Structure formats: C-alpha cells, structure tokens
TrEMBL record:
The keyword Cell membrane is assigned to this record: yes
Superkingdom as given in the UniProt entry: Eukaryota
Species of the source: Loxia leucoptera
Keyword Cell membrane attributed: yes
PANTHER family cross-referenced by the UniProt entry: XK-RELATED PROTEIN, XK-RELATED PROTEIN 5
Chief localization: membrane
Membrane topology: Multi-pass membrane protein
Protein name per its UniProtKB record: XK-related protein
Amino acid sequence: MRGAVPRLSLTLLAAESGARLCAIIHYLVRGQLGWFGLTVACLVPGYAAQLLSILWFRADGHAPGCCLLALHLLQLGLWKRYWDVLRAAAKTGDGAGELLAQLGDVCVLRLLEALLQTLPHLLLQTYVVVAVDPTGFIPGVSAGLSLLSLAWALVTYSYFTFLLKPGHLSPPAAVILCLLLWRTGMLGTRVLALVLFARLYSFWVFAVAGLHWLLMSFWLGAQQTDIVAQPCRWRLFNCLLGAVYIFCYINVRPGPSRTRVTVFYAVST
C-alpha cells in the first residue's frame, strides 16, 4: 500500500503541473496577461517547500549537487523524493523504517507545497471559471486537478500520521477513498463559497477571510500548541496555520482531536 500512495501522488502531481502549464500557455496565447501573470505568481510560494527539501537533504547527509539543485530550481525536487520512495519500496518492501521516514518527509513537503502553491492556484482558476470565463475548459480542468491534488496531499498527510501511531497498519483503500471524498467536498465547497462571495461583494471577501483568520489564530494560541518552542516562531506558526484553517482543518497536536474538530466545524459552518 505504501508503494501505491507515492505512485498515485506522483501521478496527480504530474497531472496538476501539466494542467497548470497549459493554463499559463492558454492565457499567454489569448493575450490575457493579467491572468497569465497571476498564474505564474502562484508558482513562487512553492519554492519554500523546495528550499526546505534541500535543507532536509543536507540534514540527512546528502550534499546537494548541481543536479539536485537544478531539480529543485525547476520545482522538481518532490518528484525526485517520490522517485526515491518508489525505488526504496521496490528494494526493501513496505516494512522498512527508512522507507517510512522518506515517505513522511515527502508527505509533509507535498502538503506544504500544496497549501502554498496549489491552493492559491485553485482559488485563482476557480474565480476565472466562475466570474470571467464560464466556458473556459483549460482553467476548469486546472482548477479540478488542483482541487484533487490538494485533497490528496491532505489525505497522504493523514495517512502518514496514521502510520506513526504504535501498532497501526496501513489503512484499507476504502478508508483512504472516504478521506479523499471528504477532503475534496470540504475544500470544494469552501473555495466555491469564497469565490462566489468575491464575485458578489468584491474586496469584502478579504474582510471576511481576515476575520476568520484572526479567530482561528487566537483559537490556536489559546490551545498552547507546543509544536514550536520559540515564542516568536510559535506565534508565526499559529498565524500561518490560522490562514490554512480558513479552508480546512489539520491536526497538529497529539491525542484525540474530536473536540477540536467539533469546535472548528461549529465555527466554520
């Protein structure tokens, strides 16, 4: 099962990247330079995940050479990590601890890249389809693949945290499918609601999203999340996670999360 997860992740990542490239070419050919520039700008935050990947390679004792740096510069660093996981799974099987560590690294990095890069791209393409060009096939396909890829990144993160629990085996495919449907529906409705609100009320959407962001950030601070030790970084972490909570819930604390999930959905609904 652990070999199937990175294989599907790599496939979705390739499909999403290909659709994004088609959207960029689409706007350029049609002379829509504004949407072209915004779509290209959505690529920039993804370099945070690429930089972190290089730092983790160095921390693991792998000095990044020119080839590895070039792959990360082209935003192909996670492709390299998925390929390494697939090769390790083929050689050692699913039970190796090193394979689990590699899978964990790429799941966390992919989630970070999806939140920083895929999510803004999804919002932009959804707005184009809803408010600008309802018949736009390429932006629609790009938005759909971005939604599916983002939902899968959240599922693979949950899958990895599930494997970390003592005595837990790989969850069955039915459980993963249910998680994917839940994440896709939750993200899709949230993104569509924000886009429709922006279509009707223009820049007031930033006020609504900002209020939600502040509320979630203060709520995270009240929980005394100790995942980050330094006070300044702890506040920054809560602020960043509060922005993510505008769209979805991510559990970052050990232990049962039923109460926190209930509070989140009670506020967000």
